[in-house]
Amino acid sequence: MQCPQCGKETAAGDQRCSACGHELTKALTRLKNPLVRKRLFLLGGGLLVVFGVLVFLFFLLPDRTKKEFVRRPANLGGELTGEGPDTSGQFGRKGVEIGPNAVYGQITLIRRGVITVKSLNTGKEYTIYVGHRTNYTPRRYPVVGEKVKVVYIDDKGQLKATQVEIRT
Q1: Is position 77 within any domain?
Q2: Continuous H helices in 56-121
Q3: pTM exceeds cut of 0.70
Q4: Tens digit of pLDDT for each residue in 128-143?
Q5: 54 in the same domain as 4
Q6: How many independent structural domains does the chain possess?
Q7: How far is Cα 115 from Cα 108, in angstroms, rounded to an integer?
């Protein structure tokens, strides 16, 4: 090994130069520092690239899981087409709803996104969710006390209105 101060050749295991007395261990650590820095830089860059790839895979790629969609029946309300008011002005038979997914009743409570309808045929109360996809006839929101015919779908236990027909 060569002494960095005087340039004389010294033995590999010496801690001091035999000619000038310069400490060789400090010179060795100074020589090793650029290698250590380079290794740390490469390691840090590699970790940054791996982290970037993970972020891309988990957050930016689309979700590949299967989503369960609620299918809307093709002939929604079609089972009610032959139904009309009987001689007493009621829809359907007493004690039976007017269809499997329809109720004729009176509005008892209105909250944001929810109406409560008390069936005139059975006396049972239904809490039905309404939203931007609900069709109203006439095109207005019902008020408490009005009679309505509501066609709904059952979405995992929640009744969601598709049609609200206001009767006078």
Answers
A1: no
A2: none
A3: no
A4: 999 888 999 988 989 9
A5: yes
A6: 2
A7: 8
